[in-house]
Amino acid sequence: MTDTVETVRGPVKITDMGRTLIHEHLYVTIPGWEFEPELAEFDRDAFIEEAAGKVVDLEEFGVGTFVDPCPIELGRDVGLIYEVSEKADMHIVCTTGFYFEEFGLPAYWRHQDAEDIAAHYIKEITQGIDGTNIRAGAIKVATGEEITGYERKFATAATIAQVETGVPIITHTEKGCCGPDQQDIFAGGGVDMHKCVIGHSCGNPDPAYHKKIVDRGTYIGFDRVGYEMIHPDSLRADNLVKLIDAGHIDQIMLSQDKFCHLKGIKGLPMTREEITEIEKLIDDGVFPAPYTDIFTNFLPMLKERGVSDEDIDHILRVNPQRFFSGEPFGANA
After folding, report:
1. Confidence band, pLDDT 50/70/90 cuts, at residue 331
2. What's the confidence (pLDDT) of residue 256?
3. 137: which residues sit within 8 A by CB, 6+ positions away?
4. Is the Cβ–Cβ distance between 258 and 226 less than 8 Å?
5. Closest Cα to residue 324, out of 204, 199, 170, 215?
6. DSSP conformation letters of 209-221
7. Per-residue pLDDT averaged across 305-326, rounded?
8. What one-character-per-residue DSSP string does 162-211 give?
9. Is the torsion defined by CA of 136, 106, 189, 217 positive or negative?
10. What SS3 class is residue 277?
11. Which residues contact 222 (CB under 8 A, 6 or more apart)?
């Protein structure tokens, strides 16, 4: 167990985290964007100003910590994250770890052994990232709709790094698939289950799937709030209440997986018309919705379903603090 969490500005006491959004992003890129000359322009100062302003807005709702589990190859820029953290005076946690095969896993790393990949993760956790003294506070693991051989190797590397360093694992699951398979890999590597959160589980609409996740003893991520194109938030709210009613409030993590800037959208599997529509929404400042959307739109849905302010605070404050401290469920951080 530990009484601090590593942020981009250094260690912070667990008790000073405040409410925490466990899975958000600032700056994300789709690999290969750099070969499109028209995408090369990026006003870094303007971005920092914009992102910091959006992050600052969270303070009204008691948020003190913002976790950005951006994969290494999706444009992770710890210097940029640091500057936003400084300007917004918000604790921001970054991660080590690569994405899933369809959108990541660079060839250089694909063909290395799990132990070599783990050594890189451990270096970023214990020494620093990209020549800085900024250290990762968690490990990112990502898998597709079926876990590939490469994805399994990278997940195995994460277990080695987790056991060695003690920092927790935050995962991406594609369309809410393969959470139990991720758990199998983590358990097989000797990882304590309460040191993992199986992300994007709300992407699966089936309460039986959610029960499988929590019954194995990990945290469960309802961390794509607002992704109405996948499932309506009303369904997320219904399923979250079922978990609370079943006694699993200690295992729930809430977040949105939003971003402030996305570069290379044409690399996503969408039609030209869909891409054009989304690009217009981004240009108009409509998409994505602000980080505060979870508080103004989703939490009222929970309250309408009988979830108390105390329960909401438990999910947003107590659970993340316990997660980063390494305490088992039921213990206050």
Report:
1. low
2. 97
3. 5, 6, 7, 67, 93, 94, 95, 167, 324
4. yes
5. 170
6. HHHHHHHTT-EEE
7. 98
8. HHHH---EEEEEGGG--HHHHHHHHHHTT--GGGEEETTGGGS--HHHHH
9. positive
10. helix
11. 201, 202, 236, 239, 240, 252, 253, 254, 255
Q: Which pLDDT tens digit goes with each residue over 225-238?
A: 999 889 999 999 99
pLDDT at 332 over 60: no
Please give the sequence-ordered ranges of beta strands (E in DSSP) within the chain, or none if there are none.
4-7, 10-13, 19-21, 27-29, 63-68, 91-96, 138-143, 169-173, 196-198, 219-222, 252-254, 261-263
Tell me the torsion sign for CA atoms 274, 279, 285, 290: positive
Per-residue pLDDT tens over the stretch 118-166: 999 999 999 999 999 999 999 999 999 999 999 999 999 999 999 999 9
Question: Which residues are CB-neighbours of 184 under 8 A, at least 6 positions away?
Answer: none
**Residue 99 has which token pair?**
């994405």
Distance between CA atoms of 243 and 160, rounded to whole angstroms?
31
Which pLDDT belongs to residue 267?
Answer: 83
pLDDT at site 288: 80
Tell me the per-residue pLDDT of 247-304, one tens digit each, with 9 for 90 and over. Answer: 999 999 999 999 998 888 888 887 888 888 878 877 777 778 899 999 999 999 999 9
Round to whole Å and give the CA distance between 50 and 72: 23
b/e for 135-174, b at 16 or more Cβ within 10 A? bbbbbbbbbbeebeebbbbbbbbbbbbbeebebbbbbbbb
Q: Which domains does the chain have, with CATH numbers?
A: 4-325 (3.20.20.140)
